[in-house]
């Protein structure tokens, strides 16, 4: 029964790494290999949007562009009627180039440069997040017509990468922010929070909603209408297999969400959840070295040009179909001349790996090309959506 439950959980995650490896292998067989490439399954992108809506019908998903800003991916998500949130002028320009209505997007960076704010105002962006008095004053000065939503600081317990240290207004700061808003003639009409990236505690969103509703009461007391609740991101994918699914999270949150008046719009900002499992990064073995009895495997993709999340202990799985036989322990490194360019965890892989063997890395549709750079002249993985 336990195995059956695990299978169901993985299916509800729509995570099938072996399927994505097979999908990417077919692409390489048909097109050959020249350089690192992220092969993205179009249908899996659409399936992720569908699953999100199926789990939480009241919540409108708005893709966090930072997870993967490739225009071909954004185009597929837009075709699935997914909304968008952005954090910079460049990200907004991507949406404008795709014909996305800027008034239906959300400027969700709590610290916005004045130039980016001015550009967003010119384009007709309405909703802007703040988490400090200083940002509230800046937004009000540059775009007096902006609608404001407040980012709250909540616990990030259960998140693989906590985010609360950099952003979010604590409860002790709320009254000061509301006082500032009254003095500026501004109104805070929405609330948001972020549970942290790859959060594996399904209760985190419920706790965030509970806190937001408490602050919403303060908005009402200050004659500010509560119009928007943004559940943020952090929705996890299956890595170990015991992570909560989107349906598990929905079981914790839907009752609270559905109790809200129809006048309150509810959105969320899934990033990793929508794109990670649709992508498989394909790399190649550049070299193999034995160093002091340690087996070193060098790839043409590394921390700088595709695997930056490994710095934060994201558990990448490496598949090398060309190799077989008994597994041995490998230290895996990227191609650059920097000693930082080494994956933290040891990998158990076949002993008979050879240079030029292709390496397939599933669950890599998020933050690969998005966070990569061309350090040392190595290319950012190109994206192929098929």
How would you explain this protein's 3D organization?
With 386 residues, the chain is α/β, with parallel strands linked by helices. α5 links the parallel β3 and β4. It is elongated and about 70 Å long. The protein starts with a helix and ends with a strand. The N terminus is likely disordered.
Keywords:
33% helix; alpha/beta; 386 residues; TIM Barrel; 7-stranded mixed beta sheet; 11 helices; disordered N terminus; Lyase, Ornithine Decarboxylase, Chain A, domain 1
Brief synopsis:
This protein is an alpha/beta fold and 386 residues long. Helices cover 33% and strands 22% of the residues.
CATH overall fold name of the largest domain: TIM Barrel
As a whole number of angstroms, the C-alpha radius of gyration is 22 Å
**CATH architecture descriptor text of the largest domain:** Alpha-Beta Barrel
CATH class of the largest domain, anyone? Alpha Beta
The residue fraction in helices comes out at 25-40%
- Classify the secondary structure makeup into a structural class: alpha/beta
The total domain count is 2
Largest sheet report: 8 strands, parallel, barrel
Strand order of the largest sheet: 2-3-4-5-6-8-10-11
Order of helices and strands: HHEHEHEHEHEHEEHEEHEHEHEEEEEE
Task: Report low-confidence residues grouped into runs of 5 or more.
Answer: 1-11
Beta-strand percent range = 15-25%
Question: What average pLDDT do the residues reach?
Answer: 93
Q: Roughly how many Å apart are the termini?
A: 36 Å
Shape call: elongated
Count of individual beta strands: 17
Q: What's the name of the CATH homologous superfamily of the largest domain?
A: Alanine racemase
Number of helices: 11
């Amino acid at each position: 029964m336990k195995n059956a439950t695990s299978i169901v959980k993985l299916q509800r995650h729509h995570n099938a790494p072996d399927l994505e490896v097979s999908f990417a292998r077919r692409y390489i067989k048909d097109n050959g290999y020249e350089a690192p490439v992220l092969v993205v399954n179009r249908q899996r992108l659409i399936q992720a949007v569908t699953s999100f809506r199926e789990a939480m019908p009241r919540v409108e998903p708005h893709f966090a562009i930072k997870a993967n800003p490739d225009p071909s991916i954004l185009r597929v998500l837009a075709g699935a009627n997914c909304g968008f949130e952005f954090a910079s002028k460049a990200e907004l320009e991507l949406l404008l180039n795709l014909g996305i209505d800027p008034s239906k997007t959300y400027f969700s960076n709590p610290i916005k440069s004045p130039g980016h704010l001015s550009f967003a105002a010119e384009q007709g962006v309405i909703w802007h997040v703040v988490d400090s008095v200083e940002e509230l004053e800046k937004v009000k000065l540059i775009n007096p017509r902006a609608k404001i939503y407040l980012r709250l600081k909540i616990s990030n317990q259960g998140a693989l990468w906590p985010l609360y240290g950099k952003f979010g207004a604590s409860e002790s700061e709320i009254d000061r922010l509301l006082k500032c808003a009254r003095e500026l003639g501004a109104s805070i009409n929405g609330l948001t929070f972020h549970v942290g990236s790859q959060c594996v505690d399904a209760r985190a969103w419920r706790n965030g909603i509970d806190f937001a509703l408490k602050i919403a009461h303060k908005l009402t007391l200050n004659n500010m209408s509560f119009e928007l609740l943004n559940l943020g991101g952090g929705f996890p994918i299956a890595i170990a297999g015991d992570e909560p699914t989107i349906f598990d999270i929905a079981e914790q949150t839907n009752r609270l969400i559905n109790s809200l008046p129809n006048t309150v719009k509810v959105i969320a900002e899934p990033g990793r959840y929508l794109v990670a499992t649709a992508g498989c990064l394909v790399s190649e073995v550049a070299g193999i070295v034995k160093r002091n009895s340690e087996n070193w495997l060098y790839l043409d993709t590394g921390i700088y040009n595709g695997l930056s999340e490994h710095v934060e202990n994201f558990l990448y799985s490496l598949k090398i179909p060309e190799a077989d036989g008994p597994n041995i322990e490998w230290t895996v490194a990227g191609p650059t001349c920097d000693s930082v360019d080494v994956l933290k965890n040891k990998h158990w892989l076949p002993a008979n790996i050879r240079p030029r063997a292709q390496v397939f890395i599933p669950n890599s549709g998020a933050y690969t090309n998005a966070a990569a750079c061309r350090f040392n002249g190595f290319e950012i993985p190109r994206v192929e959506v098929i």
